[in-house]
Design goal:
alpha+beta; globular; two-stranded antiparallel ribbon; about 20% strand
């Protein structure tokens, strides 16, 4: 009898929806304190997941869900660079 493989689910910090990990983008806080977008989802550090839409990113910023998930305050210039970088991956 074959067992079904578990699909890793992650919760979007913007909309709060549970989705497949591969469908989402990971915002990463490295050990050095840098905040960047991790498209592979495999880099070391604390991560927060977002849907591939601008609306979810803006909800996460407005509700401070991104800062809460990363457990640090995110400077405005970093938010702007993340927003620009996210347009590449937007579905």
């Amino acid at each position: 009898m074959a067992t079904a493989k578990k699909v890793p689910l992650r919760k979007c910090t913007g909309c709060g929806e549970m989705k497949n990990k591969k469908e989402m983008l990971r915002v990463l806080k490295t050990t050095e304190g840098d905040i960047l977008l991790d498209a592979t989802g495999k880099k070391n550090g604390r991560g927060a997941y977002l849907c591939r839409s601008r609306e979810c990113f803006e909800k996460a910023v407005k509700s401070k869900g991104l800062e809460r998930s990363l457990k640090c305050s995110v400077p405005q210039d970093v938010m702007e660079s993340l927003k620009k970088e996210m347009t590449q991956y937007e579905s």
